Structure formats: C-alpha cells, structure tokens
Amino acid sequence: MMRPANPDPCRTPSRSTTASCASACAASWKDESDWLANLANVAGAVYEWLPDVNWVGFYLLKDGELRLGPFQGRPACVRIAVGSGVCGTAVAKGRTQVVPDVHAFPGHIACDPASRSEIVVPIRDEGGTVQAVLDIDSPNAGRFDDEDRVGLEALVAAFAPHVDWERARQT
Questions:
Q1: Predicted confidence (pLDDT) per residue in 34-45, tens digit
Q2: By the 8 A CB rule, do 119 and 152 touch?
Q3: Engineered SS bond to 35: which of 44, 163, 169, 170, CB 3.0-4.6 Å?
Q4: Alpha-helical segments (H) within 51-125
Q5: Beta partners for 117?
C-alpha cells in the first residue's frame, strides 16, 4: 500500500531527495546515542522523504544472519541468511544491490508481494565490516537508479558512526 505524498511544499520529495533526507536525519542522530532510536528515525525519515516506496528498514547482522530491525511498512521477514535474497546478497558481495525487477532476481525473498523493485545498501562500521543493511522496496519496477544508490550510500556512511554496533548485536 502506498502512502500519500507529504503535502508540505518545503518537504515535497523529488525523485531522489536523499541529500535533504540526510540533512533532516542528521538532526535526529546528532545528540542521540541510542542505536535503536537512530535506526528507527532514519527508517521513518527515508520512508517519509523518498517517493514511491512501500517499505524501508534495516536488517542487522547477528550470529551470522540478518535479523529484522526498525522499519516502516508491512510486516517483514524476520531472518535472512547471508547470500539469500537481495539483502543477503548485498552482505555477501559487500556492495549495494539495485534491482529494477525483483521478480527477475534469482532467489528473491518476497516479504511484500506488492514490491517490484528494491535497493539494499550495506552499512559498515568504522573498521569497514558490514554490520547491517538498509533495505528499500518500491511497488514500481525500475524505481531506483544510480542517483539513489549514491545518495543512500552517503546517508548510511553519515549515520553509521552514530550507531553502537556492538550493543546492537547484543540485543
């Protein structure tokens, strides 16, 4: 289910508004040390700012598998094996996956049958180790492009240092 566009003209999203979203998100994590609150606020802001998305959330790497973290959208798969689906592939390959048609992606895990395209960005700690992924789905085929990839990679690079990954793995 798609949500209505934000009516505020100062915050009406364009095709890719990750720079504006990053700026808004930075205010929320600037003085906050709680990893859960920071991820929840980023998921909420991205869901609000990016048009034509039906799911935005995080999967955290715990005990060798991805586990569902804060998200916006319909209920989702709770555990994903590394190497499985788009999220697991992003972790296994260590790079962003831009999938224009999820039905053509081998091994796609369909948590929401309305999703047609997906982008998954690995999130690294300060040592360069993948700790989580940012997963975004759209009901529109071909929704995500290179501009989205660059902007979302910059967003996760900006907030990753504000997450206590060790603590996140322990909870």
A1: 899 989 999 998
A2: yes
A3: 163
A4: 85-93
A5: 138
